[in-house]
Amino acid sequence: MLKSVYSAVLFFLFLSVLTYGQQSNSAEEINSAIAVLEPTQGNKVTGTLTFTKLQEGSGVQITGDIQGLTPGKHGFHIHQYGDLSSSDGKSAGDHYNPTNMRHAGPDDTMHHAGDMGNITAGTDGIAHVDVKLSSDISSLIGRSVVVHEKEDDLMSQPAGNAGARIAVGVIGIAKAK
Ligand code: CU
Ligand code: ZN
């Protein structure tokens, strides 16, 4: 009798340890991410963007400043890879496009998940970013943000004819503030 009670207690402890491990693994919910933009070779564009998971529905709000730009519009996208090994930013791959859509603007019904249109720099060379994306924040971790030399025409395939990549940054999990 005593022996079976003892076994039952041991078994319960064993189960608790097992489920505790599982809970702490799945408990790492990502609420905030960050991308520090660095210039590609020959450029001087920098910036820091914060990705905040939206509390209603799914999606993220992306905010921050990008500086060192020529005044006017510059294509702005999430690209597939967080690989910044090439000095021209091309190792970041194409626009993030998990649902196999055509390139367009963020307000079009169908577009690449990574299409964020353009950012606009003032005469001071600074663009204030405040855009919403419908992607889940965790699907963006490990990918990259790319700023282009020219305006994205929101139409040309496969990337809006936006020219060279002038700044790139990997999207990483942000340290809790
Ligand atoms: Cu791009
Ligand atoms: Zn695109």
CATH topology descriptor: Immunoglobulin-like
Low-confidence parts, pLDDT < 50 over ≥5 residues?
A: none
Classify the secondary structure makeup into a structural class.
alpha+beta
In DSSP terms (H or I, runs of 4 or more residues), the helix count works out at: 1
The CATH superfamily is identified as: Superoxide dismutase, copper/zinc binding domain
Mean pLDDT: 90
Tell me about this structure.
By secondary structure, this protein is α+β, with helices and mostly antiparallel strands. The chain has a single domain, classed as Sandwich (Immunoglobulin-like). 14% of the residues lie in helices and 34% in strands. The chain has an eight-stranded antiparallel sheet with strand order 5-4-7-8-1-2-3-6, with no helix packed on it. A hairpin with a 6-residue loop joins strand 2 and strand 3. The protein is elongated, with a radius of gyration of 22 Å. It starts with a helix and ends with a strand. The relative contact order is 0.24. The model has no long low-confidence stretch (mean pLDDT 90). The site of copper (II) ion has 7 residues, from strand 4 and strand 7.
